[in-house]
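To close the section, here is one more complete example, presented without commentary so you can practise reading it yourself. The ligand is pyridoxal-5'-phosphate.
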Amino acid sequence: MNQASYYRWWQREDLCYQQGRLCFAGRSVQALADQFGTPAFVYSAARVRDNLQRLHGALAAAGLAGQCSLHYAMKANRFAPLLTFLKQTGLCGIDACSPAEVEHAVSCGFAPHDISFTASSLSARDLAVLARYEGVFMDCDSLHAIRAWGALKPGTKIGIRVNPAMGIGRAANDKLQYAGEATTKFGIYWEQFAEALDIAKLYGLQVGKIHFHTGCGYLTPQLAQLEQIIAHCFRFVDAAGGVERVNIGGGLGVPHLAADEPLDLDRLAAALQRQFAGRGLHVEIEPGDYILKDAGLLLLEKTFVEQKKTTVFVGVDAGFNIAPEPAYYSLPFQPLPLCYDQSPCTVASVVGNINEALDVWYEGAWLPDLSAHTHLALINAGAYSAAMASNHCMRGQFKEFLLF
Ligand SMILES: Cc1ncc(COP(=O)(O)O)c(C=O)c1O
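Output:
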């Protein structure tokens, strides 16, 4: 990537330089950093709504309007003002993956019947909490879950999360795949599916949904793979009989680098249209990343700039523990100066304040002379950042703001 592309690919109307100043959601990012202090996550409510509407729009254009629904995967970002905002848009339900997430979604205004629940390794305590929320739709991901839920709620309708042994993920990143050649804990494999149906029958459970989520971050080049996965999963639908809904999980990705092309939603919708045509099934999608990731920035204070051997390091006042995706999944969150006038940049490594070798935010950042700069902003920090933060080195503090 050269300097021009580093500064070009991510700019859009609500995130761009105006007269050399970085603006986001109609505000000067420098003014946000000065007012809020750092580290701080800022989220744009308008961008979140746009992302949901764009997805709905593509589905509607493919003739799937009444046949598809969206459940926001709240594990991506559970900031309470954001959840309340999402409820008010009326554009999505919730995908929850723990009893605490169900309680939190309800506390933010979602009704239990807005919530689809898909989790793994459920304890008796988890199940007892879930059973108190009449209307939450339970997707069972193991024989254990079917048995345990059946004992608590005999005669009810459930979903079964299946594992098609086929995965998907951004640029073949296998850390992002939940299914594939390696056997994973997620979902019930074909080899155990007949037994799953027998257990469901034993408790009088009706299998109304087949669910699969096989990986994260897919973009347009992976759509053919998604289609193959969906086609393959109809064997589970057909074997179960009486299935009304299919949940294709989340996994819709956003670009992280200049080389990434945005996910073509029209092609995604066309693929769904092709696969589900004439089947009379309702389709659920539960995206997290796609709704939130590019709607958030992480604002950081510059701490130092120093050359060590041949590498220029730029330090900032927070580390990978408050936004672990770059370190855990090699997903780059590109750093930006808050002022930029196209003057020549040097290549630097942006690093955090945690005593771990993996605490590198970004290698190969094109940054101008930062002597007069006080802050940087990282893009794509809206999902799986604050939600996955830890207090490692007792540096877990940050603020969050939802911008309207
Ligand atoms: C079952 C399930 N559904 C949906 C999602 C959301 O995925 P994404 O944020 O990639 O859309 C996840 C993420 O881990 C998941 O495990």
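Once you have examined the tokens, check your reading against these statements. The chain has twelve helices and 20 strands. The mean pLDDT is 97.
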